[in-house]
Amino acid sequence: MFLSAVLHTKFFIMGTNTGTVKFFNEEKGYGFIKDDNDNVDYFVHANGLIDDINKDDRVSYDLEDGRKGVNAVEVRLV
Questions:
Q1: What number of CA atoms fall less than 13 Å from residue 72's CA on the CB side?
Q2: Please, what's the b/e burial string for 40-55 (b: 16 or more CB within 10 A of its CB; e: otherwise)?
Q3: Close Cβ partners of 45 (under 8 Å, ≥ 6 residues apart)
Q4: Is the N end or the C end of the chain the one with fewer CB atoms within 10 Å?
């Protein structure tokens, strides 16, 4: 019998970023934040929120490498 284990690690991209909430659906629990510096849209899940957010809110956040790409985490209103 062959046993294997998959290790799930999280990679944090250092530094706090700022941006604007482009979209957030409370029912589905996800949305996107447009970064101020590079204009990239980053996925944000409700689990990554410190504060409640709405469209057009200004936020600060960290970036984390997720299963499907880079996610905004530790999202706070500024």
A1: 31
A2: eebebeeebbeeebee
A3: 29, 30, 71
A4: N
Enter the tokens of residue 2. Answer: 């062959």
Per-residue pLDDT tens for 32-50?
999 999 999 999 999 999 9
Q: How far apart are CA 46 and CA 15, in angstroms?
A: 21
DSSP one-letter string for the chain: ----------EEEEEEEEEEEEEEETTTTEEEEEETTT--EEEEEGGGBSS---TT-EEEEEEEEETTEEEEEEEEE-
